[in-house]
Amino acid sequence: MIDTRFLLSLVITAVAAAPIGAATRHAPPANERRAAWLNRYAEARQGPEQTDRILQAIKVGPGGTLDLSNISGSVRVTGDDGGDIRIEAIKRVRHRDADEARRLLQELRVDITTVGGRVEVRTTYPRRTAGERGRGISASVDYEISVPAGAAVAVKTISGDVSVTRVNGEVRAEAVSGDVSVSATPNVAVAKTVSGNVTARDVSAAGNVSLSSVSGTVAAIGLKARSLECGSVSGDVQLSSLQVERLQVKSVSGNIEFQAVLARGGRYDLTSHSGDVRVILGSDTGFELDASTFSGSVRSDFPVTLRTDGGRGRGASTRTIRGSYGDASAILAVQTFSGTVVIGRK
Amino acid sequence: MTSARDASKVNCHDLPVADFVDGELDPAVERAVERHLEGCPSCRALVDDLRTVRAAAFTLERLDPPPELLGRIQARIGTEGTGSGRVLPWPNTREAWAVWLAAAAALLLTTAIGIVPLLRQGGDAPQASSGAPAASGTALIDSVEADLQAAESHYQKAIVGLEEIARSDTSELDPQVAAVLQKNLQVVDLAIDESRAALKAEPSNAPAQQGLFEAMRTKVALLQQTVELINEMRKGNQAEAGRLMQDLSR
Lengths: 346, 250
Hints:
The structure holds two protein chains of two kinds. Chain A is mainly β. Chain A is built from three helices and 26 strands. Chain A has helices at residues 4-17, 29-46, 98-107; strands spanning 49-59, 65-72, 75-80, 84-94, 109-115, 118-124, 138-148, 152-159, 162-165, 171-177, 180-183, 188-192, 198-201, 204-213, 218-221, 224-232, 237-251, 256-260, 267-272, 277-281, 287-293, 297-300, 305-306, 320-325, 330-336, 340-345. Chain A has a 26-stranded mixed sheet that branches. In chain A, strand 5 (109-115) and strand 6 (118-124) form a beta hairpin. The termini of chain A are far apart. Chain B has one domain. Chain B has ten helices and no strands. The chains are: A mainly beta, B mainly alpha. Chains A and B meet through helix 1, strand 21 and strand 25 of A and helix 2, helix 8, helix 9 and helix 10 of B.
């Protein structure tokens, strides 16, 4: 039997992670109704929400570094043309006892320290005694931050969504339970979460980019980098309009979809245990293909010249295709255990 | 980077495994290594293991040595460099790598299991067996079957050690996150079971072999991630946060 209090906590945590205040007048009516309903529900269970707003601007010049660690709540970072890191933090606390709520709100701290051009933001929760635990309070901090476009950003949160947009310095965005989104940033290093989706849109990097989730979908659209590593255990991986020289994609039960133009000399490894792998190629770059499955099937729309393979027979069957297409200047290796492999044309 | 002129020289004895795993080879040499690996399960297993050790090494938390230790090491390197000239060569050959790999596997296993006392805050720590991985490293050379068994045993030991840590300390995690990790570990376990059953029916089937080791690698990585999260939650304020989040779930 599912614990009702557990379900309630999921609902309330969801409210905390996606604050009602963020809902605009333009939000779909259904969402507004749901948010209002959830608010009433949380209020009935945990008391009214009390909030406190903190605003701070720190001059760091055109570069600078933001290093933020949050526990519960969303984090949104946007690059702009200014030379300041501007932080807006909204603390949210619920407690049936209004005095206790005020105390918790006061003790829920946002610590901001600056050393040179580096700004560290830490969320500190109120310490509670053993007797105070288990009373079902709710506390979170939502951050809305603007940084100089050239700043480097490292954000970590335990529960809540993270998004980073238009930041040119190195970006590392991590959550444990929440969605992570990076967009319009030319220097992404890491975007990962355990429970949630990861989305990278119009991002690039000179070196390696790592995108991962355990249970959510990993999606990259318009990503340009030397190499990309991405994977999910049970979620899907969806990659489109990519320009990468090296790609390593792994999933266990999720499907993989890869749409791209292969680079000459590039190497692309895609592996799924039980998911399907679909590779859609948009150019005539030649490639050497090694595609195999144990119990699924393999199909290529490209006329691959098969090769004999170390005495193991011809290079093709419904479960294996080994051979080359065109000048074979790229390497494409696709493996599944029980999924279907399709190499198709755009 | 190994140059294209070496492409014709690729064989079991001078396989440039380190450069291959690091992706540092010219495309022509890389292709030649790929072709060699397709026909040589023994070298393939070695490369797979090296990749696993490399990947696992990157997941370990970086520890900065105390400045005085760093100073002593630098002084010692300086002395040995100018004195006896005893500098350990980076292994080039396949056989040398098998030995280094065994040592690296032992080190990683010991490191992973070494986290236990820290996590348990004074509890009993399981003993790492440095002899077993060394033995499995040597066995890599013998035969395909021995390779598979040795590699599987290597992964299994790492998995058992990490599972023990994860099981005993999962209460540190937010229940939602713990449930997600648990559910996904079950997904990986299913993949391992399916691959094992397939290998039993067709022991030399390459996709089944790859499926098994890929699934085991994923399980090691997932368990390491679980342990890292537990470790994070234990750090100062986040421990309180973890309890707070658990309270919310009661």
